[in-house]
Backbone:
């Protein structure tokens, strides 16, 4: 897969504060790459450097294997902060103006309005739009030049649950169209639901990077309950048990690698025991995220 973004020890100091510290990232074409971290972790500063809004103090980055230029930035659409639109113009007119400034084909407007589900409101003035609609128009504006990469900084910030769900679906739709998306967020749920890969930042330092699908691998917990006086002893005999503890009347069996709930169920059945409760849990992104931040004292 083609590498669309690569950073090499990218660093930014604001006086004595190190906002981003020797950051090494690699984003491949087609990925939805989430930059996850609490407020003040350096996400927005990193995006600012990548878009040429903030000058790096040290290190470098490249788009499509070459240093950033006006030409490479034409392939990137971004929603970095609250976008500025004319309140008395309609969504359609604002996008026409945007296309004119960017030198984009106005024929793209109808398609991007469809993607962000604003076709029915395209002739309404921007000032009548809800916060969610304004954010969707901002995404449409970033897409009007048909970029290869879309950069979104906290795209669901301030939205209600319905607005958040709408933006998530739009991001999935854009990704399904083959675009690469780089998304900064402090919301674990957002990253887990829409991203293919993610990096965790803390005070400007890279704590973790990898596929979202790898979250929870290697740690599978099976909750089990059965009507048997010696269940705890029997569970210890199961060859797939790494550790066992009792929580709220249920036994929690940490499974060894390669063993699953069906193996435990078969073991109990062979002993003449039918489980009344059997449920598999895997480590959530939230748990892994908190462990990553706790394990690295920066």
Residues:
């Amino acid at each position: 897969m083609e590498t669309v973004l690569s950073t090499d020890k990218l660093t930014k100091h604001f006086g004595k504060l190190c906002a981003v510290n020797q950051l090494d990232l690699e984003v491949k074409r087609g990925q939805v790459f989430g930059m996850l971290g609490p407020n003040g972790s350096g996400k927005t500063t990193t995006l600012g450097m990548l878009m040429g809004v903030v000058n790096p103090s040290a290190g470098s980055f490249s788009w499509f294997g070459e240093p950033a230029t006006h030409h490479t930035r034409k392939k990137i659409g971004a929603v970095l902060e609250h976008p500025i639109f004319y309140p008395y113009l309609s969504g359609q007119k604002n996008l026409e103006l945007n296309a004119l400034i960017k030198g984009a084909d106005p024929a793209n407007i109808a398609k991007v309005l469809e993607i962000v589900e604003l076709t029915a409101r395209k002739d309404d003035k921007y000032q009548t739009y809800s916060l969610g609609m304004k954010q969707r128009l901002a995404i449409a504006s970033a897409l009007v030049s048909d970029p290869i990469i879309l950069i979104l900084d906290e795209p669901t910030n301030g939205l209600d649950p319905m607005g958040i769900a709408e933006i998530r679906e739009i991001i999935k739709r854009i990704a399904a169209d083959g675009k690469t998306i780089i998304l900064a967020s402090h919301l674990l749920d957002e990253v887990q639901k829409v991203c293919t890969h993610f990096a965790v930042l803390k005070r400007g330092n890279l704590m973790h990077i990898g596929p979202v699908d790898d979250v929870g691998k290697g740690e599978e917990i099976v909750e089990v309950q059965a009507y048997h006086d010696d269940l705890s002893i029997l569970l210890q005999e199961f060859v797939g048990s790494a550790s066992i503890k009792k929580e709220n009347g249920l036994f929690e069996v940490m499974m060894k690698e390669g063993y699953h709930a069906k193996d435990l169920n078969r073991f109990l059945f062979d002993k003449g025991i039918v489980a009344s409760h059997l449920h598999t849990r895997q480590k959530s992104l939230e748990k892994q995220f908190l462990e990553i931040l706790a394990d690295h004292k920066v």
